[in-house]
Amino acid sequence: MSENVTGVIAREKGAEVESVTIVIPEPGPNDVIVKIQACGVCHTDLAYRDGDIEDAYPFLLGHEAAGVVESIGEDVTHVEEGDFVVLNWRAVCGECRACKKGDPKYCFNTHNASKKMTLEDGTELTSALGIGAFADKTLVHEGQCTKVDPESDPAAVGLLGCGVMAGLGAAVNTADIKRGESVAVFGVGGVGMAAVAGAVLAGASKVIAIDLDADKLETAKNTFGATHTIDSSKLSEEEVIEKVRELTDGFGTDVAIDAVGIPVTSRQAFYARDLAGRMVLVGVPNQTARFDIPAADFFGRGGALKSSWYGDCLPERDFPMYADLANQGRFPLDKFVTERVGINDVEQAFATMKTGKVLRSVVEI
């Protein structure tokens, strides 16, 4: 039987979000209904609202979520009613060409719920990243549910569902930082700050945070463990690169992570590496951005240039591990929660996000 709950939607491009009644259908054979406890407010949700991802309005927003499995379809075996889960958008299929090659982190056919949630008039909703968790409850595929320690704070652990995992994974999985290596992180918003924390966790000896905002740099150093900071607000592109080299005996870092994804930071990350260093792009570029590097420099500097999708994570492997590390006090997951707001405060949270003064606002439901 279907049920009505409250959810936050973007009805049309650029319009303020609305809290409305949405209809959740009875779960299909491999679907589950999750009662949401908390959901982070991510830049991706704002991009959906503003039409920067697709135009399949209306969108049911929200995807960085944790909650409790309330009901399950008849063929579900992955979770049970009552399980505490973090939702993910990489429910690997096991059958696509990436999965069959042994690279499920690149799965090209991830699972989503078999049915659409709707408005009361029957209008189908497009769920953000196949999740749609700014709602009392949501409908997802069983594979989108990853069980974690039920003692975890939902507001904190839910952030593993996207932004924190993206930055953390960019450092630990994509860059594969080794103990003693040097790392530069360009841009320390939520994703970049997670990359800083990931580099520290991986044992980097030098972690350099670069940003325009002095407050973020202070947080990167005092809360997340950066060893050095560079305020780029009054520096030229070349001066930033030179300061990174000054901090690394003139060579550049072993790893450079671009958590912004604009041409300036991409060039800085490319040239701030040591010879044969690794550059990782985790900041999402817009549709018009270009990465213009002379072919001779690309060849001559060697190393590796990688993009990081979802931190190259495997939710079933990574979410429980980092939840446990957080609960043991070994990873500062709770420090990413800047404020806790209600379900009717999403539009205000978007405005706060634009000020750059929060890592994450989290909707508690």
Automatic annotation (TrEMBL):
PANTHER family hit by this protein: ALCOHOL DEHYDROGENASE (PTHR43880), ALCOHOL DEHYDROGENASE CLASS-3 (PTHR43880:SF12)
Enoyl reductase (ER) domain boundaries: 14-363
Protein known as: Nitrosothiol reductase
Organism annotation: Corynebacterium casei LMG S-19264
Alphabetic keyword roster: Metal-binding, NAD, Oxidoreductase, Zinc
Cofactor: Zn(2+)
Superkingdom to which the source organism belongs: Bacteria
Gene3D superfamilies, per database record: Medium-chain alcohol dehydrogenases, catalytic domain (3.90.180.10), NAD(P)-binding Rossmann-like Domain (3.40.50.720)
Family membership noted in the UniProt record: Belongs to the zinc-containing alcohol dehydrogenase family.
